[in-house]
Design a protein that fits this description.
It catalyses: ATP + protein L-histidine = ADP + protein N-phospho-L-histidine. The chain is of the alpha+beta class. The chain folds into four domains: about 130 residues, P-loop containing nucleotide triphosphate hydrolases (Rossmann fold), CATH 3.40.50.300; about 110 residues, PAS domain (Beta-Lactamase); about 80 residues, Helix Hairpins (Orthogonal Bundle); about 180 residues, 2-Layer Sandwich (Heat Shock Protein 90), CATH 3.30.565. About 40% of the residues lie in helices and about 25% in strands. It contains 17 helices and 24 strands. The strands form five sheets. The protein has a six-stranded mixed beta sheet with strand order 6-7-8-3-9-10, with helices on both faces. A six-stranded antiparallel beta sheet has the order 12-11-16-15-14-13, sandwiched between helices. The protein has a six-stranded mixed beta sheet with strand order 22-23-21-20-18-24. Strand 20 and strand 21 form a beta hairpin. It is elongated and about 130 Å long. It starts with 7 loop residues before the first strand and ends with a strand.
Length: about 625
């Protein structure tokens, strides 16, 4: 039997482990001291987990021996490992989902569970003591399946350390912890080491190694390349040896500096790409948000590192979240076009592109690119609506012409019958038919107006003045319907060139639409202003009511002819807003509508601003200078 130091917990002598013909570990020689935290690092497939499983008795070495506290073993079994005080936390959480936190902690503890299935009170008391000791705010009555994976990992660690193990093996368990929990666990592991427990930490978290470990071993292709005290090896050299190919150029000077520059160069590329880019790990925790994305979405927090993606990213469409989860496991990149998402409370329409990141054959994370296409989506909808209206306009003009001719003939024949034949009942019947023909003529006139692309007689109009005149006209009707109208005009004249009657028709249609949407009363808010868009001055009218909004996934559909949300109202033909849309387009304007959360809907109209030709363009009348509150009509 070989002689070992009294300070040595275990020694591995020429250990090799095979999976069939594949050799996972090759001639491993490793010593772990009592009360030592020893880190094992290396890329995927290097043999790190195989080392832990061999010490835990799950894998049997094909060659070599294990000395544990001076006693030599050809191999360990799971039972032997437990008796020796070896405990292991695996890569995947191994708890009973249907049991509570308290039950998972103490079902296997003979000291607490003195009798099979001891009382719940005993379990809860012991669990509370253990959780409070390490300052974890977890309810011991909670089912494990309802915990976040970070808290599940904490429970698994606590389950093992309450047995006071001599050797605790953590196989990439730190990677599952959220940032606040990680700090508590690192402190807990330090306390364990001080109490005499040795800890073998298998991890990719290089920064944590330098805060926690005493020594580190680098595994590569199943072999130990280096074992040294953590203070003797710099971080860049550690990363280079663990995760890159060793250079064959022995004469290459300043290898560390060049490798460091390469890492910084790659990071700089990602951070400075002119796209909204996010890097996450396999558990959808954010590892990086590039600078462009932070500026675009006003992300002012100092760090989003390890924050779950769903804390800043959501979508009203569950298909998009399913897409992200499924795309994570794809070998190739995937794209979801025109997806409605909310990122950092910022709603937008986006093209989402996801690219998996692989370390050789192992998936280690993904890159998400958020391309904001909100403006493009709105323009596309505007174009589609214009094309629909243009097609319907041609049809409407033809239908109106074809109806008017026979309608005029029928009207003339009825007049002839009325004045050439006697009989009160006959005359009453003819008058009723005349009324119905007048209704048909009214519909046809709407069709003519909708399809008429000719511009009426244009003049310079002050939008503020037109709105005020309409308010004076409808204020009594608004009061009778308990509708309060608030008008906040721009302090300067807002001049456009258009036909006065057509612009009045547009505004009256908006009022009529709001009045019908609020039969029990409500409020209307109107404000006007001048804005610049691509260097062009525009006159803007914002018209908002507190009605129920538009019950349609695409509110722009209300501009389609004969579309109406007022079911059962036979007087409503669904042409008013279509006619308004056509008038606004005739004068090179634009109109859009959107639902306002808990506040009805809002119309926004933009017209090109006209430059006044008169000497009175700069006048400021007393009406437009008064306080906006006095422009409230009730």
């Amino acid at each position: 039997m070989s002689t070992v130091s009294s300070h040595t917990l275990f020694t591995l002598h020429n250990i090799s482990v095979n999976y069939g013909e594949f050799r996972a570990l090759r001639q491993i020689n490793l010593t772990l001291e009592n009360a030592e935290i020893h880190a094992i690092v290396g890329e995927h497939g290097a043999g790190k987990s195989s080392l832990g499983l061999m010490l835990n008795g799950i894998l049997q070495p094909s060659v070599g021996t294990i000395s544990f506290e001076g006693k030599e073993y050809a191999a360990l079994t799971v039972t032997t490992a437990l008796k020796l005080g070896i405990r292991m936390i695996y890569q995947q959480v191994r708890l009973y989902d249907q049991f509570t936190v308290a039950e998972n902690l103490f079902l296997s503890n003979n000291r607490i569970n003195r009798f099979l299935w001891s009382t719940k009170k005993r379990f809860l008391s012991a669990a509370n003591d253990l959780l409070n000791r390490y300052r974890f705010d977890i309810d011991p009555k909670t089912l494990v399946q309802n915990l976040h994976v970070s808290d599940q990992t904490v429970i698994e660690i606590l389950k093992h350390i309450q047995h006071h193990p001599k050797l605790l093996i953590l196989d990439e368990a730190l990677e599952r912890l959220s940032a606040p929990v990680l700090n508590k666990v690192l402190n807990m592991l330090t306390e364990l080491r001080q109490a005499g427990t040795s800890i073998l930490v298998i991890t990719h978290r290089i920064d944590d190694i330098y805060h926690l470990a005493d020594r580190v071993s680098i595994l590569k292709n199943g072999e130990i390349l280096l074992t040294d005290h953590i203070k003797n090896i710099d971080k860049i050299h550690l990363i280079k040896m663990a995760y890159t190919q060793i250079s064959a150029e022995e004469h290459l000077e300043n290898l560390n500096q060049e490798f460091y520059q390469l890492l910084k160069y790659n990071e700089a590329i990602l951070r400075n790409l002119p796209v909204n880019l996010i890097v996450t790990d396999t558990e959808n925790r954010i590892k990086m948000i590039n600078d462009h994305c932070k500026r675009y979405f006003n992300l002012h927090d100092s760090s989003y590192f390890n924050v779950p993606l769903n804390q800043v990213f959501s979508s009203p469409n569950p298909e998009i979240l399913n897409f992200l989860n499924k795309a994570l496991h794809e070998k190739e990149g995937k794209t979801f076009y025109q997806a409605p998402i909310t990122f950092h409370n910022h709603p937008l329409i986006s093209n989402l592109k996801m690219f998996p990141i692989h370390d050789e054959t192992f998936l280690i994370g993904k890159i998400i690119i958020i391309e904001d296409v909100t403006e493009y989506d709105q323009l596309q909808k505007q174009v589609m609506l214009s094309e629909k209206l243009a097609s319907v306009g041609l049809l409407a003009a033809g239908v109106a012409h074809e109806i008017n001719n026979p309608l005029g003939i029928v009207y003339n024949y009825l007049s002839h019958i009325k004045y050439n034949f006697q009989g009160q009942e006959l005359h009453e019947a003819i008058d009723r038919v005349h009324e119905e023909i007048s209704s048909i003529a009214n519909i046809v006139s709407h069709l003519h107006t909708f399809s008429d692309k000719k511009q009426g007689e244009k003049e310079e109009l002050d939008i503020n003045e037109i709105i005020q005149r309409i308010l004076n006209l409808i204020k009594h009707h608004a009061k009778s319907q308990q509708i309060c109208i608030h008008f906040t005009p721009c302090e300067t004249e807002l001049l456009i060139r258009a036909n006065r009657n057509e612009i009045k028709q547009v505004l009256l249609n908006l009022f009529k639409n709001s009045f019908e949407a609020m039969p029990s009363g409500g409020e209307i808010f109107i404000n006007t202003r001048i804005l610049q868009e691509h260097g062009t001055p525009l006159v803007q009218i914002r018209f908002q009511d507190t009605g129920p909004g538009i019950n349609d996934d695409n509110p722009m559909n209300i501009f389609l002819p004969f579309y109406s949300t007022k079911k059962g109202n036979e007087q409503n033909l669904g042409l008013g807003l279509s006619v308004s849309y056509g008038i606004i387009k005739k004068y090179h304007g634009a109109i859009s509508v959107q639902n306002i959360e808990n506040a009805g809907c809002q119309f926004v109209i933009n017209f090109p601003q006209a430059t006044s030709q008169s000497d009175e363009s700069g006048r400021e009348t007393e009406f437009f200078r008064k306080d906006p509150v006095s422009d409230t009509h009730e």
